[in-house]
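F.,

This is the one I mentioned.
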C-alpha cells in the first residue's frame, strides 16, 4: 500500500492527537501534510517539526498572526488563517484524506471543499452531518470521495455493514455509555456540578462531548448522523445503554440475528480503520484480554433521565432544519451550563423550548441551514435568560 498523505483539521483536540499517534505507529503507510486548529498554535509546533509539515492553518486570525510572529515554526512554514486557510489545508494537492475533527460548524466549509476536491474524509465532527447531512452526502456522492465515520459507534456499523446487501439489514443499534450520571438519582441531577459532568466513566474526550454524553444529546446527534451515513430511517435506529463501552454498535439482520463489533474504549481503533481502510494493521492501543472476565450489559435508556435523546429523535423525525435547530440549541445550552448560568437539568429544557420556538423547514440551499443555525442561537440565548440560575 502506498503511503497516504493526510491533513488533520482539529489537530490539537483529542481526535487530532490520537490521529497523530496512529500515524506514528505506521510511518510507512501514513504521513501528515497539513495541520489545522482553532487557536492553540503552540500545540502545533512540535507536530509540525516531527512530521515535516509546512502548511498550518488557524481559524482564529489573531492566533495565526501570533504564530507567524513567534518564529517557533521551521523556516518556510506557511501559516494560513480563517475558513479560507482551513479550506486550503483540506484541499492540498498532495493529500488524499482529510480528518475532519473541528468542533462545531467551523469545519463545514473545509469538509465540503475537500469532498468536492475528491479527498476522502474521515469525519469526526458529527455536527456537520446533523447540520447539513443532505449537502455533505450529496457532495460525497457527486465526487466519488469516501465519507468514513470516525465516531466509534458509526465506525463499528461501517465495518459491520461492509459487503452486506442492504436487504439483509433490519435495524442499527448504537450503544451509549450512559455518561457521568447513569446511576445518579434523577432528583439529584439538578444539583450536579460542571466538574462532575466532565468525569466520563470510560472515555477521555473534550468537555462539550463529555457533557453531551451525560445528557445523551450525543446519542441523539448520532442517530441523526447514522441516518445520513447509512441511509437508514431514524425509526430503524435503536439506542441501548452499555456501561462498559466494549460493544461499539450492533446490526440486526433480517433473520433476527445480531452482529456486534467489540474493542477497548480507545479512539485509536476507529481512527486507524479510517486512515488505513481497507487495510488492517496492528493498532497502537490496548487489546481486549479475553483471559479476563468480561461483563457486557445492555439496558434501554430511561427517557426521564435522558430527555435530550427524545428531543433529538423528534427532530430527526421532523427532518429539514429541525436537526440543525436541535444542534444549535444544545450547543448554546451546554455553553450556558459550562459558564455556570444554567443548572444541568436546564440543558434539555432549553433545547425543548428552542425547538418549539424556531420553525423547521426543508432547506433548498446550504445558506438556509446556516441562517437557521444563526437564528436558533439568538433564540436559545434569549430563552436561556428565563432559565438562569
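My design for it:
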Amino acid at each position: 500500500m502506498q503511503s497516504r498523505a493526510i491533513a488533520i483539521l482539529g489537530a490539537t483536540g483529542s481526535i487530532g492527537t490520537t490521529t497523530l499517534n496512529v500515524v506514528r505507529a505506521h510511518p510507512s503507510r501514513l504521513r501528515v501534510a497539513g495541520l489545522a486548529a482553532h487557536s492553540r498554535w503552540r500545540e502545533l509546533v512540535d507536530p509540525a517539526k516531527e512530521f515535516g509539515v509546512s502548511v498550518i492553518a488557524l481559524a482564529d486570525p489573531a492566533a495565526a498572526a501570533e504564530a507567524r510572529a513567534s518564529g517557533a515554526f521551521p523556516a518556510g512554514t506557511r501559516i494560513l488563517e480563517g475558513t479560507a486557510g482551513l479550506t486550503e489545508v483540506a484541499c492540498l494537492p498532495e493529500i488524499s484524506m482529510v480528518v475532519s475533527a473541528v468542533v462545531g460548524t467551523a469545519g463545514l466549509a473545509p469538509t465540503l471543499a475537500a469532498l468536492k476536491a475528491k479527498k476522502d474524509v474521515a469525519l469526526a465532527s458529527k455536527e456537520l452531518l446533523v447540520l447539513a447531512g443532505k449537502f455533505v452526502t450529496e457532495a460525497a456522492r457527486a465526487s466519488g470521495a469516501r465519507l468514513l465515520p470516525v465516531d466509534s459507534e458509526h465506525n463499528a456499523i461501517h465495518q459491520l455493514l461492509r459487503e452486506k446487501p442492504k436487504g439483509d439489514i433490519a435495524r442499527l443499534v448504537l450503544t451509549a455509555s450512559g455518561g457521568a450520571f447513569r446511576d445518579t438519582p434523577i432528583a439529584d441531577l439538578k444539583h450536579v456540578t460542571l466538574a462532575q459532568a466532565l468525569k466520563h466513566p470510560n472515555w477521555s474526550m473534550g468537555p462539550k462531548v463529555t457533557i453531551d454524553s451525560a445528557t445523551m444529546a450525543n446519542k441523539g446527534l448520532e442517530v441523526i448522523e447514522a441516518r445520513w451515513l447509512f441511509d437508514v430511517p431514524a425509526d430503524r435506529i435503536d439506542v441501548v445503554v452499555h456501561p462498559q463501552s466494549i460493544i461499539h454498535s450492533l446490526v440486526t439482520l433480517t433473520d433476527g440475528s445480531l452482529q456486534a463489533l467489540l474493542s477497548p474504549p480507545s479512539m485509536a481503533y476507529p481512527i486507524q480503520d479510517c486512515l488505513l481502510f481497507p487495510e488492517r494493521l496492528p493498532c497502537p492501543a490496548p487489546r481486549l484480554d479475553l483471559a479476563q472476565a468480561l461483563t457486557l450489559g445492555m439496558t434501554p435508556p430511561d427517557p426521564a433521565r435522558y430527555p435530550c435523546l427524545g428531543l433529538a429523535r423528534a427532530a430527526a423525525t421532523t427532518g429539514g432544519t429541525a436537526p440543525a435547530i436541535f444542534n444549535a440549541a444544545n450547543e448554546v445550552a451546554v455553553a450556558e451550563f459550562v459558564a455556570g448560568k444554567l443548572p444541568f437539568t436546564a440543558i434539555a429544557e432549553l433545547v425543548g423550548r428552542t425547538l418549539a420556538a424556531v420553525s423547521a423547514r426543508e432547506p433548498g440551499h446550504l445558506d438556509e441551514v446556516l441562517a437557521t443555525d444563526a437564528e436558533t442561537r439568538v433564540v436559545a440565548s434569549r430563552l436561556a435568560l428565563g432559565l438562569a440560575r
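The chain has 15 helices and eleven strands.

Talk soon.
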